[in-house]
Amino acid sequence: MDINYMKSFMTIIECGDFQKAADQLETSRSEILRHISKIEEELGTPLFKQDAEALELTKCGELFRSASERILNLWEQGFKSLGDFYFQGKTQLAVGSISVMVPYRITDMIFEFQKEHPEINLHVFSENDQILKEKLKQRQIELAFLHGKVSEDEAFESLLYYQDSGCVLLPQQHPLANRAVISIRDLANEQFLLLPEKTGIHQEFMRICRESGVSPKIAGIFRNSSSIFDLVSKSCGVGFLMRASAAAQLQDGVVLKRLAEKSVINIYLSRYREVKMSAAARLFWAYIRERRETEQQEKDPEEET
Model's pTM, two decimal places? Predict the structure, then answer.
């Protein structure tokens, strides 16, 4: 049985709702239901009571929950033990990141830092902002690249890493495709294809809509932006993504348009203030700050000309 099926099952129990579980795992409700169907197919019996008003486990579901807890704990302990054995005696640094790393050169920064500091074993974990914040609080990671409003949270110290903006994805044949700039009001009747609610870009999109008095029609929520590109190219809706990320993935049949409404999405390197930084974390923090300052100085003369 796929370990991810058990993770989905336990997340449903934790959230008490299929859709909330799907949002937390950054996937679709149908995918969550598919996982449950696979488990029930292997066990030959339902996990949830069909006629219950609220989410309620069957007797088999209760037994499977107990088994899943033990298996997932053993699975996590096993990976930790293997990691401890492999990296024994070396300095460790765990860093989290938003899932979209390449367009923002996060992978380049990590690679270059690792080259300069081979004595440090750098572990990188990709998750959504909310999960990364929890991992910082629980000391599972020391630093994380986050976007959204983490800088406004006093529990975290944040270093500005990258400034991006939102952009609209239109089918190439869309009536507004020839415009240089589009207002969100021009798209009030469109079907929107978005990333999950907990992502910074989704929250920024909803903010723009609220301030513009637009109630967006959301046709679908997708974990991967590639699905959004594919559907937009087939004229199944319009998308809203971070510009640098969208530009890196641009494909035939899709055009990117700047939004008239101001849209700023910052990416930060953040740490939880209550946790003292290790020497490795301080090195990485200083490295990112220095690289950011150097790149900004190189950019400023170009902006003046």
Answer: 0.64
